[in-house]
TrEMBL record:
UniProt region (Disordered), positions on chain: 88-110
Pfam name, any one: Carboxyl_trans
Name the UniProt record assigns to this protein: Acetyl co-A carboxylase
Domain CoA carboxyltransferase N-terminal: residue ranges: 125-310
A single cellular component GO annotation: acetyl-CoA carboxylase complex
Chain intervals with Low complexity compositional bias: 88-105
Taxonomic source organism: Maburea trinervis
Amino acid sequence: DNDHSFLSQLQSSFYSYRNSSYLNNGSKSDDPYYDRYVYDTQYSWNNHINSCIDSYLHSQIRIDSYILSDSVNYSDSYIYSFVCGESGNSSESESSSIRTSTNGSDLTIRESSNDLDATQKYRHLWVQCENCYGLNYKKFFKSKMNICEQCGYHLKMSSSDRIELSIDPGTWDPMDEDMISLDPIEFHSEEELYKDRIDSYQRKTGLTEAVQTGIGQLNGIPIAIGVMDFQFLGGSMGSVVGEKITRLIEYATNKFLPLIIVCASGGARMQEGSLSLMQMAKISSALYDYQSNKKLFYVSILTSPTTGGV
């Protein structure tokens, strides 16, 4: 049937690639130990490649009924086209060479340029673990709450992913999305202007600032929530971040809502000088009224990375 033929073709493609030669000898040396060195090097290299491919085949791709049932057409799937298409034609492409020198002799390790292009092309399908460097299939990685299936390490989350995980679907109502940072002290930098850095991070993350604030429901209970994002200038707190959090606290105070703030920050934003330091006092004052005067429920969640600056 189709499932069996697909798996057979996938397996044969990998094993034919695995059994191919990875080392091409350059000019031979008169050194009597040269042949032994080449043999040991080639043996170690082949063992390493075999181990990587076995791990990739059995642990990373996870070709099981779950993936097969989700693929309507195998020839259109990413994995099928990568293994049976890109890798199968790699022998026809031009190869780049990496040379290493030992005892006056060159050993040439040939790598297919098509393989490098394919790796970049399908990079968006995988997430590499920061702890064990294993690859996690992104389609399943998000449903596992960013936990590495190889070692159980908890990887960092973006603010959008954390909001999606925490809030009931369809209940998120963001606040103050149009607030953006200016350059109040005209911060001087030889590398890049502060305004240009803000624009760069806005394009990179899709956020306007280092925190997202809004209203949502948690198991049907209305709450106010603010989530900081370390990907935006290290989650640093400038005037806009402080103002958005303060407005969120004041809104929760007036509406008598539970408040959750998820922190992921490196501290005050140095590009805004003392104005960024003032935000802590402003937020603390609003929180004092929320907790001490109104006696409302507040939860502060410290996530990685959070330093002592916030």
